[in-house]
Backbone:
């Protein structure tokens, strides 16, 4: 009854604000517009308002989730990085000791659903826009771009939490006679993972038919970005659809992308939006559009997050992979500044892929690039029985960094070879944890992670800890939500 009482209280409170046409609030991780006057309820009255709403959804790729937590979740939760820094919430993630009150867990849930709320507003209201300045072709593109963004957010949610609420509508008006109708929207139950994945795929298919092939820069949803996401989703959903993975990877590869000749050029800030990049968040720098996230990972002013792991550095060294190691990790002397049990002060590592870590950085973040898709296609070919084809793609990646061809030839050998290649190629790009999870290797790999002297680090990852807890604050607000096992 508590949510109903809260809802009735909201209705009563909103009646006092008759001077405002709309109010916005977020009681359940979703933006809600409340009409108390009976005025025109058309949400968007012009093409420019729709464009502004879409820009607002895109801008969320620059929030705290994508500037920081995306990399903590993908790398520090795996064996590529330790938590570093001094944040106990990050330590919980690193050590698989999360609880439902962890602040990262709560804010990540809120960030992702906030963006979903923005895309819902666009998708649910764009059809009513009569402004002739919104052409039919641009309307279709906006629908495609908003669908891509919503799918991207839900893909984060379902990988982190499993079953999650599937919110596709926003509440435009609140009134006492509509409580039953709006209750299920504001306080939804968790949807099974297969339903969430089905919606992600449906959104991406909607996007694929509508988005542009090219855009002013790689920060927009294009056919290449959508095909790449479809490949990733089909490689993750159970059961994996490797034929679909191959199909969508082939579509990306045919889209005009190519590997840069020099691996380090991806990170030198002189080749942003390169021919290898598929989806890349663009920053202009300065106070208004600076990427403060890079300052979290490198610098001598305070102890940084995502400390490169001994296990990863040892993997680079074992492969004699000097080019990618130097591109990914830089060692500095931090004597007298801070200490850490994993590394000596005189030889202390930082992530080196994000190199502009000054205030107001204009460093872009690359979320999807061709090497990722080539290795994903190699994985698909291997699972479909084409081991020579899979090995050829692995060797294409290795050849760029002057490494000899892989010696793996059987399906089992190539599974491990592709896993290793993805780790070394994509280190600190937020992929490792999700790769280990979708291949079923997370528990084995993490419970055997090694420290500076080859000692077992003592992680105790269990099946329950492959998913995050539902935030306690959400459980308190919504009686329909249930907690994940083990929390």
Residues:
């Amino acid at each position: 009854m508590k949510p109903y009482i809260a809802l009735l209280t909201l209705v009563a409170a909103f009646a006092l604000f008759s001077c405002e046409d709309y109010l916005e609030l977020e009681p359940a991780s979703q933006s809600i517009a409340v009409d108390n006057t009976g005025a025109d309820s058309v949400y968007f009255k012009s093409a420019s308002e729709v464009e502004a709403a879409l820009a607002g959804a895109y801008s969320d790729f620059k929030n705290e989730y994508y500037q920081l937590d995306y990399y903590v979740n993908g790398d520090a939760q795996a064996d590529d990085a330790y938590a570093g820094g001094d944040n106990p919430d990050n330590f919980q993630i690193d050590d698989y000791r999360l609880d439902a009150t962890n602040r990262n867990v709560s804010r990540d849930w809120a960030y992702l659903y906030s963006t979903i709320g923005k895309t819902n507003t666009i998708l649910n209201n764009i059809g009513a826009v009569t402004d002739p300045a919104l052409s039919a072709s641009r309307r279709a593109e906006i629908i495609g771009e908003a669908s891509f963004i919503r799918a991207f957010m839900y893909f984060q949610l379902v990988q982190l939490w499993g079953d999650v609420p599937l919110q596709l509508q926003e509440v435009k008006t609140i009134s006492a006679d509509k409580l039953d109708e709006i209750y299920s929207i504001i306080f939804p139950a968790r949807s099974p993972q297969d339903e969430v994945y089905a919606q992600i795929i449906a959104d991406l298919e909607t996007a694929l038919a509508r988005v542009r092939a090219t855009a002013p820069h790689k920060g927009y949803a294009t056919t290449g970005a959508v095909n790449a996401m479809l490949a990733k989703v089909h490689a993750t959903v159970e059961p994996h659809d490797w034929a679909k993975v191959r199909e969508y990877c082939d579509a990306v590869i045919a889209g005009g992308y190519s590997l840069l000749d020099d691996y380090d050029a991806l990170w030198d800030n002189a080749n942003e939006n390169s021919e290898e990049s598929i989806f890349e968040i663009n920053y202009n720098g300065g106070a208004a559009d600076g990427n403060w996230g890079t300052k979290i990972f490198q610098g001598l002013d305070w102890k940084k997050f995502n400390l490169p792991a001994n296990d990863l550095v040892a993997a680079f060294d074992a492969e004699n992979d000097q080019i990618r190691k130097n591109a990914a990790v830089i060692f500095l002397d931090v004597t007298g500044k801070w200490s850490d049990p994993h590394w000596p002060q005189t030889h202390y590592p930082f992530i080196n892929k994000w190199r502009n870590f000054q205030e107001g950085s204009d460093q872009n973040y690359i979320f999807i690039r061709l090497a990722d898709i080539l290795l994903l296609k190699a994985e698909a070919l291997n699972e479909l029985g084409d081991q020579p084809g899979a090995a050829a793609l692995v060797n294409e990646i290795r050849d760029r960094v002057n490494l000899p061809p892989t010696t793996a030839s059987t399906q089992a050998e190539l599974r491990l070879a592709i896993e290793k290649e993805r780790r070394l190629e994509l280190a600190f790009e937020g992929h490792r944890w999700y790769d280990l999870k979708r291949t079923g290797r997370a528990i084995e790999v993490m419970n055997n992670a090694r420290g500076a002297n080859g000692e077992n680090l003592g992680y105790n990852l269990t099946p329950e800890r492959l998913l995050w807890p539902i935030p306690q604050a959400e459980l308190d607000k919504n009686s329909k939500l249930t907690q994940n096992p083990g929390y």
Observations:
- Residues 1-39 have pLDDT under 50 and may be disordered.
- Strands lie at 22-25, 32-35, 81-84, 277-281, 305-308, 329-332, 348-351, 365-369.
- The longest strand covers residues 277-281.
- The longest helix spans residues 136-161.
